[in-house]
Amino acid sequence: MIEQTLKEAKFACRAMQLVDKDTKIEALKKIHDNLLNRMSYILSENDKDIQAARANGMRESMIDRLQLSEARLQEIAQGVLDVAALPDPIGEVVREIHRPNGLLIKQVRIPIGTVAVIYESRPNVTVDIAAICIKTNNVCVLKGGKEAIHSNIALAEVMNEAIKDVLPAHVINMVQVTDRQAVNDILNGIGLVDVVIPRGGKGLIQHVVQNAKVPVIETGAGLCHVYVDKEADLDMAVRIAVNAKLQRPSVCNAMETLLVHKDVAEEFLTKLKPEIERVQVYGDQTALHYLPGQTATDENYSTEYDDYKLNVKVVNDVDEAIEHIYDHSTKHSETIVTENKATAQYFMDALDSACVYHNASTRFTDGSQFGFGAEVGISTQKLHARGPIGLPEMTSTKYLIYGSGQIRE
Amino acid sequence: MIEQTLKEAKFACRAMQLVDKDTKIEALKKIHDNLLNRMSYILSENDKDIQAARANGMRESMIDRLQLSEARLQEIAQGVLDVAALPDPIGEVVREIHRPNGLLIKQVRIPIGTVAVIYESRPNVTVDIAAICIKTNNVCVLKGGKEAIHSNIALAEVMNEAIKDVLPAHVINMVQVTDRQAVNDILNGIGLVDVVIPRGGKGLIQHVVQNAKVPVIETGAGLCHVYVDKEADLDMAVRIAVNAKLQRPSVCNAMETLLVHKDVAEEFLTKLKPEIERVQVYGDQTALHYLPGQTATDENYSTEYDDYKLNVKVVNDVDEAIEHIYDHSTKHSETIVTENKATAQYFMDALDSACVYHNASTRFTDGSQFGFGAEVGISTQKLHARGPIGLPEMTSTKYLIYGSGQIRE
């Protein structure tokens, strides 16, 4: 049971809400400094995780995600300073209403409260989330993966040591147990947890969505589409498709399905072929005329590969592309490539995905690429936050109403 | 199983998203006209519900909520025209970002999608919600109480008849079965229901929060506080306290607990006494010196009475008032009465309730009193919507990103 941790976190929200801008910046600078000062301790704790991972036969690509180094820690510490320098959203007046009865109503940004984040192996998430939460006066409850437990406990300890004289107690809370029960306590924390954000694979996200009784921000599922229209600049379309698939296939904003207008299928796919030789293609009959590969099933069209695999489908028109996207997309990011602005706008208006592009790669769906400076994840749900989650999305609001004795008639 | 209804609703979102401003206004006017044209039919169906309610021994105050009349239907129809006349939030550009690489990023308001509302006896909710959803390009799934089933089916039928040549099919969906299974289908409708909003008593709201796997906007729980500071204008404090408790005790923005600074307890409570003779007081020892009543327990302080009952507690200072509110409030509405602006601002900054007032009655927490023109309910959760839910809160956003061939390096 981690109920005590959740209660301490919720209680800390009261004091944390009143911490001012400069104190938050001071706290973040102290975290930066202490991460550098305590580098050897953090690296030695990280090494315990790495050794355990090797002993358990973890894949090298996963060990790479887990491993810290001096250079990585410097980067992580710099990230904390970057968050400190961002515009502070707390206290911002979102709306001001003057009522005929003299009431002045101000809607202002406030912290959400207790933000619980459940994540997997990367220990940098521990520091990123803590920094973003401090900047937005939130209190965080961090539940990392068991593979990174020594690293995460060390990072939280070093951060808490840094802020102990500056911020209220229990602002950064690391869950030190690694069992599923701790996750379930968070998901059932009505009244204690204001939001839970899962960061990780599909299994984790589904578990949270299916079981949380507290509000969730769903992130990260990315089955993204590129549609090459009959009026596309085909060289541009090749560049965009290759970038969307191959610049970093493992991430959520990479393309999984390429839709091609039938009028340009031959020319476009012939141009594309030499650029995607490393990619396993799942295509419809027409696509497989021009590209080697296997016949695509509906399961292919519904799979987020995050890998060197790609679905290719030839469509009759933009409407068929839109229908296909509605039927298979996770509503993350979609692109149309066309020189026809009206067709582009129609595609952009008709879809309801978080990010819809005209003539650009889906790979830009990212907090830093949007200029947000920091990112908690990419929301693919409709409520509260959509697309990259930056600092404003980590806030709630309240109304302050200034009167002079008004009563309701 | 109402899965078919939910699928039809979800599919209707695609076409509904593209309906323009004028068409929505036309649809709402047709609903207004048809509600008046079909008045006798609606009233005869309503009469079936009234007769069933009488046969089942329903209280007269509940029957009053259920009953329609010509005058009430005219008012309901006028409400539809009022919604039609409100500013249209859909398509509004919330934010525009120009990136150094030439990308133009526009965040625009879009509909949420499928909005499911589960409510109790008042049939006017059927029309209010349908009108608000049409104005915001949302598709609604309405699940009313079984007491109002004939009225609700008739109202939905009359509205659907009105819009059949103007809007896509299945934009207004009335769930015609009255069993709990229909509610559970909605709560489990992952991928089909974008948000569920419960409107009704505590039991309904708790059931939805505990069981929904789809996103919820929690509404309506209102345990509101008035704090009378030592520097209050005591005559103003009496007016505000009386208004907050007695102007309409049955609603969520009425006061349940009165907190009084010890320095003014005697004078204030003596002034208040003759004004609240109809009210059952639960007080602490000091309060009961000046007011007749019973000793308050922690359970009293945690109860939303919605009735002629009031907790009264004498506190040592504003901090004790703030602590009491944090420990017992549903985060709906709280008021401080004081002439000291610094004390007022401290109280307003320290609390995180949806609405915090200075020198005004809590009864103003209401969409129409805020100037929103229409209201779906009062959100007491931190995510997405806080306080009165107006049209902008019934929207989501998406990013439209305009490029000229940009790819990520």
What does this molecule look like?
The structure is a homodimer of 409-residue chains. Chain A has 409 residues and is α/β, with parallel strands linked by helices. Chain A contains 15 helices and 16 strands. Chain A folds into 2 domains: 3-219 and 376-402, 3-Layer(aba) Sandwich (Aldehyde Dehydrogenase, Chain A, domain 1), CATH 3.40.605; 224-364, Aldehyde Dehydrogenase, Chain A, domain 2, CATH 3.40.309. The first copy, chain A, is 41% helix and 21% strand. In chain A, strand 1 (93-98) and strand 2 (104-111) form a beta hairpin. The longest helix of chain A is centred in the N-terminal third of the chain and has 17 residues, at 21-37. The radius of gyration of chain A is 24 Å and the shape is globular.
DSSP helical segment count of chain A: 15
Describe the main β-sheet of chain A briefly.
7 strands, parallel
Tell me the quaternary state.
Answer: homodimer
Helix/strand class of chain A: alpha/beta
CATH arch. level architecture of the largest domain in chain A: 3-Layer(aba) Sandwich
> What is the fourth-level CATH superfamily of the largest domain in chain A?
Aldehyde Dehydrogenase, Chain A, domain 1
Using CB atoms under 8 Å apart, which protein chain pair has the greatest interface?
Answer: A-B, 70 and 70 residues
User: How is the largest sheet of chain A built, in terms of strand order?
Assistant: 10-9-11-8-7-12-13
Number of domains as seen in the coordinates of chain A:
2
CATH topology of the largest domain in chain A: Aldehyde Dehydrogenase, Chain A, domain 1
CATH class of the largest domain in chain A: Alpha Beta
Strand content of chain A: 15-25%
Catalytic activity (chains A, B): L-glutamate 5-semialdehyde + phosphate + NADP(+) = L-glutamyl 5-phosphate + NADPH + H(+)
GO molecular function, one term (chains A, B): NADP binding
Enzyme class (chains A, B): oxidoreductase
Subcellular location (chains A, B): Cytoplasm
